[in-house]
């Protein structure tokens, strides 16, 4: 739903509690735990980062009693379309005379005035 490739999710409380890691196996023990086990309640904010896409998402957790039957959660707000990987930076520039500062070679003839 959020089009993330390798997300890292943490509680946005300044402590850095990591819930989901893009590193395989790092947070596997969290898979069967409830959000309340981490102190996540109504009003908690989560931060999801996907460094492969240079993409950060803030998630506000809000409790609701008004969800339909068999609906466990609902995403409200603007969700992005699929985001591709960020364009790669050019690895080299065409540099002449060993400098990229725009300076031009000297055209003096060596004659003094």
TrEMBL record:
- The record lists the membrane-crossing segments as none
Taking every annotated instance into account, which residue ranges of this chain make up the domain Ubiquitin/SUMO-activating enzyme ubiquitin-like? 1-67
Q: Identify the domain of life.
A: Eukaryota
Disordered, as annotated region: 76-113
* UniProt name for this protein: SAE2 enzyme
Q: Where is the composition biased (Polar residues)?
A: 89-113
Q: Where is the SUMO-activating enzyme subunit 2 C-terminal domain?
A: 78-109
What InterPro entries does this protein's entry cite? UAE_UbL_dom, UBA2_C
